[in-house]
Amino acid sequence: MEYPYDDMCDIVVKCSVARAGHLVDCIRRTVPIKTRCDSIPSEIKYHFFVEIVPIFCGDLIFLPPNIAATLGANIVICTRVAKKITLLDPFTLTAFSLKADEYWNAPFTHSFTRTQLVKYVVLDIVLQEEEEIAAAAAKKYRLADAVVARVEDFGNNDTTFQIKTHLGHILKSGDYALGYDLSGRKEGGGANTNINGDLPAAILITKSSYDEENGRIVVVVEGKWESDYQLFLKDLQQDTRLTFRVAAMYRNQTYHPSSGEAIREHFTRPSVPLEELQD
């Protein structure tokens, strides 16, 4: 079977109709999905098909023209995937939320995903003057002008990039960060976007620590599946609500989230000690 996106797969679960319905409801309360139910009367069987949005936290997205016109942004970063998809314009600090039906009415996918992150070192950073911004995201992020270099280039050549970043509140000179390298894509975002001008040389996504003893950045480990697992643990550390749901699912078999439970979108991400995830 051919899939429209990379790393897609089929997961087949055989169970009763009631259990299948509960499973679909559980997934729907966690991430935006699209469902379909087919019945086979002659065999007394029901098939539930569930498609999860192919967008992940940390993805960089060049929005299609119709979505870009609606949101007022061409390039966004996915900052959260829950019942809604939260997108951030890294150049204006404007945040947007898309419900499942809004996404599936005009679906799109990422332009860059976390497996394509490149390591950068921050050589200089200057905060931009703060302005009165009503968006909640502005309380979490800070715009800054930065000079960065790819870690693989640092010490080998003098290639540097002057960029704008939304991580001015946490980055300083000498820090390391992960971002997407757009320096080789000066032709724009592609035929399906409104991005016709020059792209920024890089867009930083997150700050990362550096292991001086081993001389490497400690975020992505070798091996695709290990990397995905490490990223999942990082998401759990940064999202207390997700941690609670996972812990409740595995430690208390009688736990069932309320169908009316509301998830309030906010932009603060408290950290959870890793030890709590390893009990």
From TrEMBL:
Entry superkingdom: Eukaryota
Annotated 60S ribosomal export protein NMD3 OB-fold domain residues: 117-206
According to its UniProt entry, one GO biological process term is:
ribosomal large subunit export from nucleus
Domain 60S ribosomal export protein NMD3 SH3 positions: 59-100
Please give the GO cellular component terms listed in this UniProt entry. cytoplasm; nucleus
Q: Which Pfam families match?
A: NMD_SH3 (PF21193), OB_NMD3 (PF21192)
Molecular function as annotated in GO: ribosomal large subunit binding
- In its UniProt entry, what is this protein called? Nonsense-mediated mRNA decay protein
